């Protein structure tokens, strides 16, 4: 994988996904190798961030390298300067580019013109680094990914897309309940269903949250209104009012089911405090695993994966 871009989970084969997860588990257990000494990672962020920025920054430092943080106010990506020029200039300075953008196309443009690996730290269509942390957490808690049953309740957004792609690639079964008009994009459904045939995983689209989480091993939800969608808050709140994860909904899952959320959470909206603060919640283990999963990606793309 050295030198490649990581824009979507679909960039990975099943073997590559397993290799990243194994690397993440190993460095979490044994410590971080000084494999990226002297390397620099550019962090281009059009959107604000807590977990994504800090986890990439800390991961790069633990691996011996360092980062340069570039907010939109300084870069003006696509406004003050064309994306193509930013990509080519940064390629002369840094060893990799992590970009958190509003549009997926911006990442494609960066990757087209950059001579160094480009990593998607979130876009409107995908959140692949979050998905790696998600499946790493499920693997830790359930011992395996193959055959694990995941119930996702809520918006078929970028988080749901990448989670579905990663879960089915790893041989897990995911069922998703979303209101009409908010389900996974049709092209994602088609791709995942095709992929699931060879991986042993599966995707089911449900109409109600109770159907999606019945007897599952993992219950997952995300915010109803993502960053940049604030003008649709009232409409979304109405559409998702029956998609809240409550103790009653959790009782539909297996007794040892875990609850997951990528954070930040809007408590009292998509999830109640009793759930996210309850004994089944693993949301902060999941948040920690952003660090280890992304460190594994950096090692695979920028370093020697055999370290």
Characteristics:
five-stranded parallel beta sheet, globular, alpha/beta, 14% strand, four-stranded parallel beta sheet, 9 strands, 307 residues
Poorly predicted tracts of residues:
none
Which geometry do the CA atoms define? globular
| Helicity range | 40-55%
Sequence of strands across the biggest β-sheet: 7-6-5-8-9
- The run of helices and strands is HEHEHHEHEHEHEHEHEHHEHH
Overall description:
The protein has about 300 residues and is an alpha/beta fold. It is about 45% helix and about 15% strand. The protein has a five-stranded parallel beta sheet with strand order 7-6-5-8-9. The chain has a four-stranded parallel beta sheet with strand order 2-1-3-4, sandwiched between helices. Helix 2 links the parallel strand 1 (about 40-45) and strand 2 (about 65-70). Helix 2 (about 50-60) packs across helix 13, helix 4 (about 85-90) crosses helix 5 (about 105-115) and helix 6 crosses helix 13 (about 285-300). The model has no long low-confidence stretch (mean pLDDT about 95).
Kindly summarize this structure in a few lines.
This protein has 307 residues and is an alpha/beta fold. Helices cover 43% and strands 14% of the residues.
């Amino acid at each position: 994988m050295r030198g490649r871009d990581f824009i979507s989970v679909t960039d990975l084969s099943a073997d590559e996904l397993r290799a990243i997860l194994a690397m993440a588990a190993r460095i979490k257990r044994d410590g971080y190798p000084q494999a990226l000494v002297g390397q620099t990672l550019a962090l281009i962020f059009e959107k604000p961030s807590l977990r994504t920025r800090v986890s990439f920054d800390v991961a790069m430092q633990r691996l011996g390298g360092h980062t340069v943080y570039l907010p939109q106010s300084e870069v003006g990506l696509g406004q003050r300067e064309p994306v193509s020029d930013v990509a080519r200039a940064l390629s002369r300075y840094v060893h990799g580019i992590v970009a958190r953008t509003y549009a997926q196309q911006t990442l494609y443009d960066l990757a087209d013109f950059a001579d160094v690996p480009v990593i998607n730290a979130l876009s409107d269509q995908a959140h692949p680094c979050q998905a790696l942390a998600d499946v790493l957490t499920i693997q830790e808690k359930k011992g395996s990914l193959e055959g694990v049953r995941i119930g996702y309740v809520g918006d078929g957004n970028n988080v749901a897309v990448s989670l579905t792609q990663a879960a089915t690639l790893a041989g897990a079964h995911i069922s998703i309940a979303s209101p009409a008009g908010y389900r996974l994009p049709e092209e994602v459904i088609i791709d995942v269903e095709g992929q699931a045939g060879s991986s042993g995983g599966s995707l089911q689209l449900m109409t109600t949250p109770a159907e999606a989480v019945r007897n599952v091993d993992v219950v997952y939800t995300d915010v109803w209104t993502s960053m940049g969608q604030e003008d649709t808050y009232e409409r979304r709140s109405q559409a998702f009012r029956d998609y809240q994860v409550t103790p009653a909904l959790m009782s539909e899952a297996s007794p040892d089911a875990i609850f997951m959320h990528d954070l930040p959470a809007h408590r009292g909206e998509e999830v109640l405090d009793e759930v996210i603060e309850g004994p089944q919640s693993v949301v902060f283990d999941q948040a920690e695993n952003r660090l280890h999963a992304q460190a594994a990606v950096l090692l695979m793309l920028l370093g020697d994966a055999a370290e």
